Here is the input.
Amino acid sequence: MSKEQRARVDAMMRQPRAEGPRSAEALRAGFAALMAQMIVPGGIHTTRTTLGDRPALHVEPDNGRRAGTILYFHGGGWVFGSPETALSLTGHLVAKTGFEAHSLDYRLAPEHPFPAAIDDTLRAYRALLDSGKDPSAIAFAGDSAGGGLTVTTCLAARDAGLPPPAAIVAFSPGLDATRTGESMDTKEGIDPIFTRKALEHTGAMYVAGADPHQPLLSPAVLADLTGFPPMLIQVGINEILLDDSTRLAARARAAGVDVILDITADVPHVFQSFAGVLEEADEALDRAALFLGQRIRAGGTVHTSAE
Here is the structure.
């Protein structure tokens, strides 16, 4: 581990920001500019497509694709972000696993508040199943708000009578619209990215007056995770969202779910985005790729990109 690397990333994320709440448009522009600095690996190619009537980015390895699919949900507080802003993450997962990924451009708040995003992600999963893909060959993965969607989409799929995916990988997931985790306060100021006020600002756009005390908005404190697939949750110890992950992992264990809670010291929210810059990011993605490779059971068939 590199203290120097972690210190540089922390300083980068603490750059001065505009005072006061920002509009959705300003948040989107700022996030796109930030994520454009992340390293996208070579050895992959992308194609714009649609999935469940929403735009999506199809990401494939250039050589020797393994049979298996990652359905990816990008981060951005349900207000900003896109498949393009998450490409450093989807690209590295595809490069490291050999699986294809479909990164979904779900609808965003405030134009499309809760439950629009979940409706879109559920429809995308249903589209993959309707195309003939076996659920044992599909994994959900996502970061931040998208990490939350890996869980709430699985809840919605279960409620709709659909089979669960083979696995869930969640990077720094947002899982509690009630904002009751102790880390919301104990990590204030330590977290280089978020404050309670900032999360409540974007959260209000998504929740839009709905009661946050429901499983699809606060699964960390209210969801019944019975029947969930194996889960890998990765989070940084400095995050104000830390307890979203720790409480969900506890609920998963209580429900008899195979869950790995992977906590890394002194790294920011969705630190995996810094692959190629931060050793901890590369190592975490290696662990995520290993987990996915062990859980996606598709026979190991190898295809070429020409097939």
